[in-house]
Amino acid sequence: MKSPMKLDFATVLTDAWTLFKRDRDLLLRIAAPFLFLPAFALALVVPDPPMPDAAAGNNEAQAMVWADAVQTWAAAHGGWYLLAYVMSFFGTSLFYALYLDRDHLDLQQALTRCLRIFPRFLLAMVIVSLPAGAGLLLYAIPGLYILGRTMLTGPAMFAEAPLGALAAIRRSLVLSRGSGLPLMGLAAFSYISGWLVGAPFMMADKALRDGGQGNPVALAIVDAGAAVAAMAAGIAMALIAISAYRRLAR
């Protein structure tokens, strides 16, 4: 039985950086409409979801008030968040089609192929996001570990088609066996780096809006900065997943 291949953290990052330097013009043309614009629109015009009042402790009445506020926010704005996530997932799937299709597609062919595979890819991402999101919300490490072990789901779906959503997730778990910790580190690198770069811009956005008279030009600038950080993190995660898949699927 073939033993699982070990993955080197630094080598994967080097591979991903090499891909970005070589193809940055194409990558940025794809990322601009699918990763940057949705994040920019959300930051600029859609209010953040209400957060629970930490000072309220476990007060049941306060919890009910917060739950009602979340429900009201979701009814008014949740659709825009959903649309933004769908667009960003499509942009990510386009990266996978360009780099991992065995026929080496051009951009137009990759778009066509994405439209066929995207429903399965989106389903797989939803299935993966539920436990990963819960893990990140409760304790960061379990969520990052799940993100790492399932990082190869999208690449496997495009490189080894036809694969369904569950089959692609299982394939990722098989390929990542024995490499869970370096993959967790790679997921953490993308996730945390994007958050650290974007956090100052979001803090500036909050400060500008708290007075109720935020300068629209200043808001647009800081929200564009936050969207650039989100776009960079999305590109990094996709290229890291592609590079990791190429090494583990040998």
Description:
This protein is an all-alpha fold and 250 residues long. It is 81% helix and 0% strand. It contains 8 helices and no strands. It is globular. The protein starts with 8 loop residues before the first helix and ends with a helix. The mean pLDDT is 87.
Question: What would a concise description of this structure say?
Answer:
The chain is mainly alpha-helical and 250 residues long.
Structural features:
about 250 residues, mainly alpha
Number of helices: 8
Write down the overall geometry.
globular
DSSP strand tally: 0
Mean pLDDT: 87
Rounded to an integer in angstroms, the radius of gyration calculated over CA atoms is 19 Å
Low-pLDDT ranges? none
Helix content: over 70%
Please give the largest β-sheet. Answer: none
State which percent range the strand residues make up.
under 5%
SSE run: HHHHHHHH
Roughly how many Å apart are the termini? 15 Å
Structural class of the helices, strands and pairings?
mainly alpha
